[in-house]
Amino acid sequence: MAVRKILLLGNPILRTRCSAVKEFSSKETQRTIVDLRDTLDEFRNRHGFGRGIAAPQIGATPSIIFIRLGGLDAVINPKVIKRSTQMIELWDDCFSFPDILVKVRRHKRIEISYVDESGERKTLKAADAISELLQHEIDHINGVLAIDRAIRKRDIILRSEFPRLS
Length: 166
Hints:
Blueprint: H1 27-47, E1 52-54, E2 64-67, E3 74-83, E4 87-92, E5 100-107, E6 109-115, E7 121-127, H2 128-141, E8 156-158
């Protein structure tokens, strides 16, 4: 098991634009995938939630995300190729700032191109929960954080204050 420390808001690696993976079967690529998987699974086991993680969150900079939703796992070099005009608003959270919620606007549906762990190029149409998760994680590999996408300044709150909004 290769659980890595999750980097927190303020760490400059979270603002790094990741580099495209060229060698899908390299030891570095495979190690990053295993580390992402193990770190996500350990977080889920400890906290009872968590659907995805991006390489910069564990201090790595290849363009890789790992998803536990919709039958996905390693998603390499993802790119959004289509976006719906219809948007959704939601309170987003992030492992890298676990005590903060951010109200963001995301595309309801997207289509992405990516490469799987075996090096096969694929496309995926996603809607709703998987769409917003993919957008969140793809932002990470581009150095963009959910706090950058806050609809308004007042839409960044402490998780402990969320119940007061209902």
